[in-house]
Amino acid sequence: MHVRELTADDLDAAWELGRFAFGSDSQRPASTSTAVPGLTRYGAFDDAGRLVGKAVDLHHDQWWTGRAMPAADVAGVAVAPEARGRGVARAMLTALLRGAHERGAAISALYPTVAAPYRAFGWEAAGVLRTVDLATASLPRHQPAAHLTVRAGAPADLPAVAALYERVGRHRNGMLTRRGELFDFFAADRGLPGDGLTLVEAAGDLVGYAIWQRGRGYGADSVLTVDEALATTADAARELVGVLGSWASVAPTLRLCPLDGDAVSTHLPLESARDHKRDLWMHRPVDVARAVSARGWPAHASGTVDVTLADPLAEWNTGTWRLTVAEGAAELSRISGEADFRLDVRGFALLYTGAARARSVAQAGLLHHPAGVDPSALDLLGAGGPAQLLDYF
């Protein structure tokens, strides 16, 4: 078996492999038969030259406390049934990580169909993209604010929508920037991203938007799917929620992915939400030094801690490091010897994303330290709050 980047001649076989693995529709999207900028496709081939595995490195950037981080987000991993259990996925993901490291990526995220194999390769569960259903009639209605204008959006409004998304997302951790060649490729010459786009403006400036799909019918099973609803003011959020609530007579269910603690979510009756779908996502560093230096850090966080890291797939991460955080920046520098704290790469992922604190990581067996030594010094690695994704890929 050998692994290499796929060429145009391999794309038919890659499509068939993915179609069988994921049960995809037999109608083939045009993007699967052509070169797409902003991604790298990898394939594993047996001795006869047959494609037995594939994986895709998406050249995303993620926001981490105000700074865009180069990421290698993984999608489309599939292995032929006859080749499963023979190290194909490990070989592909090792090659993918090495290629991502060479092109400057710092971190990686993926949505697994099953978590265990990815844990063996250094990714760890860090969060859930949650889709919920709400009774549309339960959404609060308010008197329209006189200083706000609500209108239907058009394709010409999409740059303003992208700018508002960035204002909401850039100071969080983990959210995609939605910039770069890959997004430019799929955005070219497109119309509205949904059936409808509702805008809320204040003095001509966009302060809130909702992208929605009307769905079918108007009976008890009718669902209004909100692809995204974001706002930068409380008044704009109330206005959006009121507009969405106005669908109650013909769409009794509202379906959306709430963004924790944002302006719109704080006006939704989430106590009555029912889970429609939960998509686990996993994280790992591609390059730990870049992952630390390239992100933003809270100005109040400061300190120094030494840690010995083990990463079986990315040997450039293995070794003893000194983490130094001060004045909104951080550095991870190599030092000699063994540190008191010995951290598995999966533990690094949990701490870095804010998914767990050091004591919990130690209890999970992913952090080892001498008896009597407080592991909470490594909580410094997770300063800045938990990460969250809002895009499925």
From TrEMBL:
UniProt keyword terms in alphabetical order: Transferase
Location of the N-acetyltransferase domain: 1-146
Gene Ontology biological process terms from the UniProt entry: aminoglycoside antibiotic catabolic process
Tree of life domain: Bacteria
InterPro entries registered for this protein in UniProt: Acetyltransferase_Eis, Acyl_CoA_acyltransferase, Eis_dom, GNAT_dom, SCP2_sterol-bd_dom_sf
Record's keyword annotation contains rRNA-binding: no
Pfam family, one: SCP2_2
GO molecular function per UniProt: aminoglycoside N-acetyltransferase activity
Protein known as: GNAT family N-acetyltransferase
Organism field: Micromonospora arborensis
